[in-house]
Structures are given as structure tokens and as C-alpha cells.
Design goal:
Distance between the termini: 41 Å
CATH topology of the largest domain: Aminoglycoside 3'-phosphotransferase, Chain: A, domain 2
Radius of gyration: 20 Å
Largest sheet: 5 strands, antiparallel
CATH architecture of the largest domain: Alpha-Beta Complex
Number of domains: 2
Strand order of the largest sheet: 1-2-3-5-4
Oligomer: single chain
Number of strands: 10
Number of helices: 11
Helix content: 40-55%
Order of helices and strands: HEEEHEEEHHHHHEEEEHHHH
CATH class of the largest domain: Alpha Beta
Structural class: alpha+beta
Length: 308
């Protein structure tokens, strides 16, 4: 996955913004390496201070990208309270001048998983995720689920849905019922990233780091597990082979319901118009949604066959 547009580079930032960054990171910057991954249109670079220390900085112009600046503000609030067990890089500081918002983190010496997913790397990330299932959400973290659900809004849009998934078009009422159950099953007290895609994962020499936490919620661990495995399904891998030898939280019905709510969010997002410069997000959501739908269809069919 790649950014939805060309990112600003260090030399192109306003002088005042560069000064704020250097204040937050604790010294003059002598080198900057832009990071192309993800979808944010903002600045995202690994910076090297004059003393050789490396930090990761992201910043965005709120006048140009109001939705993204809101996410940066949310990320600063979330990362300030994340426990060490979350596996997130340490937040060094942030600035907000009313227009530009920036965050500075300890740089992670790692790389994104290979895409399409490599089965071995997927297994490694799933293992790390399952080891963190019991990390409690920090006090005050939101419990709503804005990144789940969408079939209720599409239930009368059969023709639009049929262009991409005839199966979903034929099962819209059922999908809407399932996602209602999924919104209930998604409730919980665990720390959930709620955007656990490969572009938010870094493989290090001895572990797995998770970055970009603005959507974090108190939720069921199924939310992150379903999100991660749906990206593998979109790449043609079989999530069931990953789950086969592992203890999964909740019941089979819970997983199906959360998966239905997840696919609804993705398909609705994939069919929605986005502001210029962010079209890549809708394209990615639709691809991920269709992959997750194929996984859900297989699960529901196998449940029906087993019941017969």
C-alpha cells in the first residue's frame, strides 16, 4: 500500500514548522528520509539529529487536510496513554500551532511486512497479536465503533453492491442482521488498534511493532484479529489455515458477526466518494472489503454445510 499522494519533504515544510519539529525532537535535524507507506498525505519522515539519534516525525497542514489533522490530534492523545505492552513506538512529543499538528516518535528499526502477505510473516504478526490480547484499554479510551458497520446503509443499494459482489447483493438483509450482532460482539475492555493493516505494522529483529493508533478503542480482541486476517484474505491467503491451530477469543458466531460488520465498513467506504487526493483510500477499502467478503462467504457456507 502506498500514500495517496506525494508527501511533503523536510525541505518543503514551512520554516516555523521545521523549528517546531526540531524543538520537539530535541535538536537540529541533519538528515531526513521520507517514508512512503500508508495513506496519509502529510509529512512522514525518519529524521536524524545532529547527534545521530533517529526519530520518526509525522505532521500535517490542517488547512489542506482537516480530517487528517483531526486524526493526528487523536493519535497524540492515544499514544500519550498507551501501555508499553501495546508494542507502539514511544511518543517523544507533539506540537499544535492551530494549523499544523506534528508528532515525534522514537524511530523503529524495522520494515513493513512484504505485500502481498508472505505466509510466514503473517504467522509471525498473528502470533504477536494473540500474545497481546489481554492488554487492557487505558482508562477513558472510547468504546464506540466508527470503523465497523455499513451494510445497514447499503441494504437498499442492491444494484451498486451487485456490481462488485453478487453474493453480497443477494444477502444484504442477512449481512445487515449479522453486522448488528457484530457491533455487539465487538464490545470489550481490551486495547484494540482498529486499523491493523500491514502498513501499520513493522517487523523488527526481535519483535513486531504497531504504529498509527488514532482509531484505538476499548473493544473485543476480535476486532484487530479480523482486520489483520481480512488483509490476508484480500491477498489470496486462507485465514482459516492461520486460525486452525490457535485459540481464538469468542465463538465462531462472534467472529462471523464482527467480520460482517468489518466488511460492511470496508465496502461502504469503497463505494463512497472521497476528497481529491484521497481516492486511493476508497480503492484500498473496496479491495480489502471484497477479500473479506469472500472469506465471510466461505465461513457461512461451511457453517451451513456442517449444520445439514
Amino acid at each position: 500500500m502506498s500514500a495517496s499522494k506525494s508527501r511533503p519533504v523536510w525541505s518543503g515544510l514551512p520554516t516555523a514548522v521545521r523549528a517546531e519539529v526540531e524543538r520537539v525532537v530535541g535538536g537540529p535535524v541533519v538528515d531526513a528520509r521520507s517514508c512512503p507507506g500508508g495513506f496519509s498525505p502529510g509529512f512522514a519522515s525518519v529524521l536524524t539529529r545532529v547527534d545521530g539519534h533517529r526519530v520518526f516525525v509525522k505532521a500535517v497542514d490542517g488547512d489542506a487536510w482537516p480530517s487528517d489533522v483531526a486524526l493526528h490530534r487523536a493519535e497524540a492523545e492515544v499514544n500519550a496513554v498507551l501501555p508499553t505492552a501495546a508494542g507502539a513506538p514511544r511518543l517523544l512529543g507533539a506540537f499544535d500551532d492551530g494549523r499544523w499538528v506534528g508528532l515525534a516518535f522514537e524511530a523503529v528499526d524495522g520494515r513493513e511486512p512484504r505485500q502481498p502477505w508472505d505466509a510466514g510473516e503473517l504467522d509471525r504478526v498473528v502470533t504477536a497479536l494473540l500474545a497481546r490480547l489481554d492488554v487492557p484499554a487505558p482508562a477513558g479510551l472510547a468504546r464506540d465503533h466508527p470503523r465497523l458497520g455499513g451494510w445497514a446503509a447499503l441494504v437498499d443499494e442492491r444494484d451498486r453492491v451487485a456490481e462488485h459482489s453478487p453474493w453480497a447483493a443477494d444477502h444484504l438483509p442477512r449481512l445487515a442482521r449479522l453486522e448488528r450482532a457484530g457491533l455487539a460482539a465487538a464490545r470489550g475492555d481490551a486495547l484494540a488498534h482498529c486499523d491493523l493493516y500491514p502498513h501499520n505494522v513493522l517487523l523488527t529483529a526481535d519483535g513486531v511493532a504497531v504504529v498509527d493508533w488514532p482509531h484505538a478503542r476499548a473493544a473485543s480482541p476480535l476486532v484487530d484479529l479480523v482486520t489483520l486476517l481480512s488483509s490476508a484474505a484480500a491477498d489470496g491467503l486462507d485465514p482459516e489455515s492461520v486460525l486452525a491451530s490457535r485459540a481464538v477469543p469468542g465463538t465462531r458466531d462472534d467472529l462471523d458477526a464482527v467480520l460482517a460488520a468489518h466488511t460492511g465498513f470496508l465496502v461502504l467506504g469503497g463505494l463512497s466518494a472521497l476528497p481529491p487526493g484521497l481516492e486511493a483510500i476508497a480503492i484500498a477499502k473496496l479491495r480489502l472489503g471484497l477479500g473479506a467478503l469472500a472469506w465471510l462467504e466461505r465461513r457461512l457456507d461451511s457453517s451451513r454445510t456442517a449444520a445439514e
